[in-house]
Automatic annotation (TrEMBL):
Keyword Translocase: yes
Source organism: Streptomyces asoensis
UniProt GO MF annotations: ABC-type xenobiotic transporter activity; ATP binding; ATP hydrolysis activity
BP terms from Gene Ontology: response to antibiotic
Entries under Gene3D superfamilies matching the protein: P-loop containing nucleotide triphosphate hydrolases
Family of this protein: Belongs to the ABC transporter superfamily. Drug exporter-1 (DrugE1) (TC 3.A.1.105) family.
InterPro entries for the chain: AAA+_ATPase, ABC_transporter-like_ATP-bd, ABC_transporter-like_CS, ABC_transporter_ATP-binding, P-loop_NTPase
Domain of life according to the entry: Bacteria
Protein name: ABC-type xenobiotic transporter
GO CC terms, sorted: plasma membrane
Bilayer topology term: Peripheral membrane protein
Length: 310
């Protein structure tokens, strides 16, 4: 795909903060109408990349084109066509739910009537019509995130940038927000999403870019990432009394990859049921077993490591 098909095109993108290299020569494109997710551990460069896409941070090197424009020279024109949902809540506590939208709409030059009509339409979209007259502090966390998304859509943006939109929400609120994002996509929106939830990325994304230490380690559809970096299934063996490492050669012969995590051993295999049967026939006797499909989280941890990054 050429850059002419892309709403966002980054070529050799770099971001430095003093001597620190936060984004290191990355190349990617975001196509019209797709949900493109950016994943990575803390400090991987996700936030730095998102700030450059939002136009609030200037690239240190490389080329970045958004909607065919240069964000350094055409920042205001680009921002007028973006919808941004920041990670931290920026709703106005002094205003009602409806006023948060109408006031924002007026900043885009809408008449009072147009602003109200657009705001009521968006409250219906995010299922907050019955809370229109309420103040922000009366809303739940999920309601506030939905309102933030509604506000980002006021100007009918060409691109919506969502920075960890469901962090801290309960499962019901997350799934309702997923429904709204799927509807956005059905309506033709282009969405760039960062998230720490692997199931969220797998459910919503057309393509995923995984970054680590400022560089891209993998990019593709969820299916492509699973096929390339995972196996069809995973067997988890639990050894409550500790794992005897002398069993590693035997287990290694049963799996494409073996990972020892304290008292747990993960076997990445083609057929979990057959592998468990073979483990027991070989007398390896785990305390318990779990058979499951390989997930995007397995791929993510394989590519970025299991070390905790603070």
């Amino acid at each position: 795909m050429g850059t002419g098909d892309a709403l966002i095109s980054a070529q050799g993108l770099v971001k430095r903060y003093g001597d620190s290299l936060a984004v290191d020569d990355i190349h990617f494109e975001v196509r019209a109408g797709e949900v493109f997710s950016l994943l990575g551990p803390n400090g991987a460069g996700k936030s730095s990349t998102m700030r450059m896409l939002c136009g609030t941070s200037t690239p240190s090197g490389g080329s970045l084109r958004i909607l065919g424009m240069n964000p350094v020279k055409d920042g205001p024109a680009i921002r007028a066509r973006l919808g941004v949902v920041p990670q931290k809540d920026s709703l106005d506590r002094e205003l009602t739910v409806l006023e948060n939208l109408t006031t924002y709409a007026r900043l885009f030059g809408m008449s009072r009537r147009a602003a109200r009509n657009r705001s009521m339409e968006l409250l219906e979209f995010v299922r907050l019509t019955d809370r229109a007259k309420d103040l922000i502090d009366s809303l739940s966390g999920g309601m506030m995130r939905r309102l933030a998304i509604a506000r980002a859509l006021v100007n009918e943006p060409d691109i919506v940038l969502l920075d960890e939109p469901t962090t801290g929400l309960d499962p019901q609120a997350r799934h309702l927000l997923w429904d709204r994002l799927r509807e956005l996509k059905r309506n033709g929106a282009t969405v760039v999403l960062t998230t720490h939830y692997m199931d969220e990325a797998e459910q919503l994304s057309d393509r995923i870019m995984i970054v680590d230490r400022g560089r891209i380690v993998a990019i593709g559809t969820p299916g492509q990432l699973l096929r390339t970096h995972g196996t069809p299934e995973v067997v988890e063996l639990r050894y409550d009394d500790g794992f005897d490492t002398s069993h590693l050669p035997a287990l290694g012969s049963l799996a494409e990859r073996v990972e020892v995590l304290g008292s747990r051993v993960l076997l990445y295999v083609k057929n979990a049921e057959e592998t468990v049967a073979t483990v027991h026939r070989a007398g390896l006797r785990p305390s318990g077993t779990l058979e499951r499909r390989c997930t995007l989280e397995d791929v993510f941890l394989r590519l970025t490591g299991r070390s905790l990054v603070e």
